[in-house]
Request: fold
Amino acid sequence: MKTALITGITGQDGAYLAELLLAKGYVVHGIKRRTSLINTGRIDHLFQDPHTPDPRLILHYGDMTDSLSLVRTIQKIQPDEIYNLAAQSHVAVSFEEPEYTANSDALGPLRVLEAIRILGLEKKTRFYQASTSELYGLVQEVPQRETTPFYPRSPYAAAKLYAYWITVNYREAYGIYACNGILFNHESPIRGETFVTRKITRALARIKLGMQDKLYLGNLDARRDWGHARDYVEAQWLMLQQDKPQDFVIATGIQYSVRQFVEAAALELGMKLRWEGEGVNERGYDESGRAVVLVDPRYFRPTEVETLLGDASRARQELGWTPRTPFAELVREMAQADLALAQRDRLCEAEGFQPVGGRE
Ligand code: NDP
Ligand code: GDR
Reply:
């Protein structure tokens, strides 16, 4: 029975990966940070009472900015595999919190790699680093593959660039089985609510039910290669099962604009959106002429990544990995899940209860 440690287990990918590894028979440990409200909602369905004998999902308090907690947990668990998913993962927020982003996203992975070394686990523990298509930033080649030069465009991407290279360096310097998954955007019904796809499906569902009247977005022309998180965590696992460690691009090879995502979600929810004009004044109107989608420059980024498109040929050839969920299915799953949540919230409100959740 293999033992895995997932940092960032309470996040989108952490939840899908924990589910996958438990299904494969792993003992799964996760690091969660202290928060003032319990935030294990995404993994509650996997919860195992720690009082039962030999639970297979065990959570530990820790933080990517706290070396001691990382060393202590890794020493205790002696994991076969570490999936380093924890990060301040919001690109726009990284412009507001650049130092914290560097601490958690750049130095965090260094701390984990150094813990493997300090504890003498170089030959035992395999390491996965959650690298990102944001590394390509101002793109130098289309589509982007493992050999495409990087050009980061945010404090987040710059921090992830350090993490990418420190992973390569510890592989070469100390012989650690360490690899980077260069994952393009991947989404799901449990995507954080302030990433654009989830923001769109959540808002349109609420607009449809009359619980909200507007959706403010930033750059509608940004293009992304969007896949499903469920498919992408499988690639993370596959990367740690090979004979030799390598870095892989994980992507669908198809891109859509933010505007196209809005249109696909509206179609799925049976809402007709009419687009008018060009540029920042552009608005979407519903059938009765009500403005629904508006551009708010507050959501523009100081430096933007306009377009990303991945080529996952190496993953297909060497890992046998291909994405399974087409774009329309991803949008459908997200829109229907958010419609169900909006219906629940509306029922709560009608009965005089405050729905759970917060606001951006
Ligand atoms: P999420 O934002 O959903 O999850 C991030 C996780 O990291 C959460 O569990 C969060 O905890 C935890 N975390 C954040 N800061 C710290 C810290 N200082 N110490 C400990 N834990 C921390 O991200 P995703 O699941 O979407 O992404 C997983 C990883 O993959 C991230 O590193 C992200 O940068 C990277 N990535 C994501 C892509 C995507 O499209 N989803 C694409 C490419 C890379 P909490 O729940 O308390 O906030
Ligand atoms: P991204 O995802 O920055 O690609 O990072 P996000 O969904 O935040 O933005 C995608 C694109 O949409 C544009 N956009 C908006 N974005 C947000 N969040 N809110 C808006 O209102 C809005 N309007 C337009 C953005 O400008 C951008 O061009 C995600 C994260 O998961 C990272 O951690 C990961 O590394 C990359 O994907 C790959």
